[in-house]
């Protein structure tokens, strides 16, 4: 009986996952970004948490938010890095990795694109 109950629960949750609205998925993903931006949040992890295939997850998010899932994640990480640059004298590499970036070169490119100057110049302002 327990096995039958678990099977029914699993089927029911899969049905609900297929019928989630784009707005509900976007809200959930935005919340995950807010909570977990410093760590390596991946599409694979979001797929497991939502029980929705990555391609469908990306389509739903784009339909609701008009952007990719990684765009708000990157902006959140860059905002955190900018705040750290203004408030502390920590080394830029520490801030980079603390903000969730895994590559210093990529961090510099993204930061320069977002703020119009590199992190060193931003700190100097």
Summarize the structure.
The protein has 125 residues and is an all-alpha fold. The protein has eight helices and no strands.
Task: Explain this structure.
The protein is mainly α and 125 residues long. Helix content is 76%, strand content 0%. The protein contains eight helices and no strands. It has helices at residues 2-18, 22-36, 43-50, 54-65, 70-87, 92-98, 104-115, 119-124. α2 packs across α4. The longest helix has 18 residues, at 70-87. It is elongated and about 65 Å long. The model has no long low-confidence stretch (mean pLDDT 90).
Write the topology of this structure.
Blueprint: H1 2-18, H2 22-36, H3 43-50, H4 54-65, H5 70-87, H6 92-98, H7 104-115, H8 119-124
Rg from alpha-carbon coordinates: 19 Å
Low-confidence stretches: none
Q: Between the first and last Cα atoms, what is the distance in angstroms?
A: 67 Å
What is the H-and-E element order? HHHHHHHH
| Main beta sheet | none
- Structural class per helix/strand content? mainly alpha
Q: Strand percentage, roughly?
A: under 5%
Strand count: 0
Helix fraction by DSSP (H/I, runs of at least 4): over 70%
Note the overall shape. Answer: elongated
Give the overall average pLDDT: 90
Oligomer: single chain
Number of helices: 8
């Amino acid at each position: 009986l327990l096995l039958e109950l678990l099977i029914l629960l699993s089927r029911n949750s899969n049905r609900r996952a297929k019928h989630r609205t784009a707005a509900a998925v976007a809200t959930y993903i935005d919340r995950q970004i807010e909570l977990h931006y410093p760590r390596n949040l991946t599409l694979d992890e979001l797929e497991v948490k939502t029980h929705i295939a990555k391609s469908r997850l990306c389509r739903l998010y784009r339909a609701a938010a008009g952007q990719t899932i990684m765009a708000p994640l990157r902006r959140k990480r860059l905002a955190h890095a900018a705040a750290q640059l203004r408030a502390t004298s920590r080394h830029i590499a520490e801030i980079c990795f603390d903000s969730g970036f895994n590559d210093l070169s990529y961090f510099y490119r993204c930061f320069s694109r977002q703020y119009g100057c590199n992190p060193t110049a931003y700190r100097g302002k």
